[in-house]
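so my prof wants the structure for this chain in the tokens format not the other one, which i didnt know existed until like an hour ago. anyway here's the sequence
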Amino acid sequence: MDLNFFQVTLLALIQGITEFLPVSSSAHLILPSLLLDWPDQGLTFDVAVHLGSLFAVLAYFRHDILQLLVAWLKNLTQRQTSEDSRLAWLIIIATVPGALAGLFANDLVENYARSGYVIGSTSTLFALLLWYADKRVDPGRSLSELTWRQALFVGFAQALALIPGTSRSGITMTAALFCGLTRQAAAKLSFFLAIPIIFGSFTLRGTELVNVGALGEYLLPLAYGVFVSGLVAFACIHYFMQLIERIGFLPFVIYRIGLAVVLFSITFMA
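here's what i got, hopefully its the right format
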């Protein structure tokens, strides 16, 4: 990871802005290396700035998360069942496919799936799928109406987000919309699902860095990247939750297709 202060700042800003929007943060993080001939920052940096996003979602939904955690613990220890404990279990169920995919396909993605062609293709494909889900499905269900089958469906969709350009938030919101959830509920579920996935990814990569003795070398720029991305991600969550019911997903669909065209053009001319 050979990045200077300006490069770390710009990439952290990009991550913070794009992580929770359905536009694919990985598609944006590869742009500087293509446009400015920067070295690819690698999956280690990507995972680190995702930790900033994790802090942001924990801070923004702190009351909801605390309720879910308390209800889940009561269900485990005292067999008390509630809507919150049920939702907590559904989030765990939905996390399993993505966790397994990340564990077994992590190296494959880092070595072979970070090209402009791959990211442009997945950005276009899943943007159109998001448009279809938002346009054709009649939403109206709240998170309390989510079933375990639907949670598992969203979980398998999240596993696809390991492919750069898919957009983890985009594909989980798409799947949630197909399950009939409202836009607000789909977005909220996507944010909740980000917590264990990002934490697991960071733990896995951080353990690898510690084992090879490289954590100290990268600690300062990574910590700075975490701070910047977290601050920006918090603001993005706030405004996205306020706007999503009014603007829908079409602006993000159009933007992703335009981004894909840019990626294809740059990669072809490189």
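also thought this was worth mentioning. Residues 215-247 form the longest helix (33 residues).
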